[in-house]
Hints:
Elements: E1 2-11, E2 14-15, H1 25-36, E3 58-70, E4 75-93, E5 117-118, E6 126-127
Antiparallel strand pairs: 1-2, 1-4, 3-4, 5-6
Amino acid sequence: MSRVLVRLLMFQWICTTCFVTSETANDTKNLIMKLFQPAGYTKTIRPLINQHHVLTVRTDMFLNSIIDFNEQEENIKISGHLFIRWFDEFLQWNPEEYGGLESFVSPQDDIWRPDVALHNSFRTFTGLGSSNYC
């Protein structure tokens, strides 16, 4: 069984990836129907079959630019990419049954995602990600 490596690419803390690739559109449609509808995928449950296990979530932050730096006020404004990766044990399938499809990228509102927030923000507490984007 293949595991989906769920990848969320967040540009300036908003995910903008929203595509699925496969051999045919029917392969993708059939896989999504299997994973999300009859299987009863629930994004409110951590993606581990054994809920006592620890879920490893990897993050990388890549700085694009420093927009503003004020030493006297002790603040900095930056732009960058935040990458978040984990394995979702509920999103597994046999690739041969779906035209060789081994992975896909899903809109962030369709799958479980870790709570990520910018705790050290200058003025306000800012949650990362948005339901306005995929």
